[in-house]
Amino acid sequence: MRILVTGGAGYIGSHTCVELLNAGHEVIVVDNLSNSSFESLKRVKEITGKDLLLYEYNLLDYDKIDEIFQSNKIDAVIHFAGLKAAGESVEIPLKYYHTNLLSTINLLEIMRDHEVFNLVFSSSATVYGTPKTVPITEDFPLSATNPYGTSKLMIEQILNDFYYSDKRFSIVILRYFNPIGAHKSGKIGENPKGIPNNLLPYISQVAVGKLKLVKVFGNNYETVDGTGVRDYIHVVDLSLGHLKAIEKKANCSGVHIYNLGTGIGYSVLEMIKAFEKACGKHIPYEIVEPRSGDIAECYSNPQKAKDELGWSAVYNVNQMCEDAWRWQSMNSNGYNE
Question: 183: helix, coil or strand?
């Protein structure tokens, strides 16, 4: 298939491009490179020995995106593009709603006009809000605690309404838990701009000497050691979930929703210990006040993806940390070497 990957130069997008190319698909990337790097796609080509096409366009530019569909016969779309920092979304909510919603609406209208009916959407476990129990299944009540999460939830509703209006579409919604790790080559990985928002890149930068210590937000939760518990999934496992979704659900009309996680929760302190083992260094940390909106536990029940897509995570937490450290140690400044 010829697959358009929006946001394909980003962390998850670039790893997914690798798996799509390795599986024999043709890849077209559209990315405005506002939160990503052309270097990642250069390295995707090095890893796979295959070429891809890049359009450096913004999804908000309707005419430019329409031009891509006019110039290429596209079979399916994987939609990663959007703003993604939960904390930042609280500070600039209108920008998040404008960018994430309008870009998706543009994409859907153009897909419909060009009769491209297969879509995989990058959603998030944030749509579960504060779950009353764990593990989380796809039928849990939905809510959100920040504008980023709300934008994902609103897009899910848009996709459901859109399908109801045009049942030719096959729409797969993938709800990620916490992606970490990197490609085993060490050539591509997570490349946050500025101070990382997520735990593992922060730990990595402490290990490489860019940051002094890890701030652990709270240690009085009802968990194994008092720190927050999350479901961490290797980015390659996550990428393979997109490949399975494309291959299993192409032309299967409906809205199909899946959790992508390991089904295992690890605490912040357990992750620090696992990373210490991977890098052979002591990782200093300090306990600070919990952040508003943080929850004690969040981990998935991924059984539906296993049953319907034939997908399950295979990497364990030690492998995730080893691959993350290989990327960080080989690229101390990310793609900005």
Answer: coil
Whether 193 has a pLDDT exceeding 90, the answer reads: no
pLDDT tens figures, 130-184: 898 999 999 999 999 899 999 999 999 999 999 999 999 999 999 999 999 999 9
Q: Please enumerate, as own/partner, the contacts of 184-188 that have beta carbons within 8 Å and a separation of 24 or more.
A: 184/236, 184/323, 184/326, 185/47, 186/323, 186/326, 186/327, 186/329, 186/330, 186/331, 187/43, 187/46, 187/47, 187/330, 188/14, 188/15, 188/18, 188/40, 188/43, 188/44, 188/47, 188/327
How far is Cα 20 from Cα 236, in angstroms, rounded to an integer? 11
Alpha-helical regions (H) of 9-92: 11-22, 38-48, 62-71, 86-91
125 close to 78: Cβ distance less than 8 angstroms:
no
- pLDDT digits over 12-24, tens only? 999 999 999 999 9
Please give the structure tokens belonging to residue 169.
């579409």
> Distance between CA atoms of 28 and 220, rounded to whole angstroms?
47
Alpha carbon distance 12, 176 (integer Å): 11
The token duo for 32 is 């405005």
The predicted model gives 274-303 an average pLDDT of 94
* Backbone dihedral angles phi then psi of residue 12, each to the nearest 5 degrees: -75, -35
φ, ψ for residue 68 (rounded to 5)? -60, -45
Q: 54-111 pLDDT, tens per residue?
A: 999 999 999 999 999 999 999 999 999 999 988 899 999 999 999 999 999 999 999 9
The answer to whether 202 is a known catalytic residue is: no
Strands (E), the chain: 2-6, 26-30, 53-55, 76-79, 118-124, 170-176, 178-180, 214-217, 229-230, 232-234, 254-260, 266-267, 285-288, 297-298
**Residue ranges of E strands in 181-280:** 214-217, 229-230, 232-234, 254-260, 266-267
Q: Which is the catalytic residue, given 11, 96, 128, 148?
A: 148
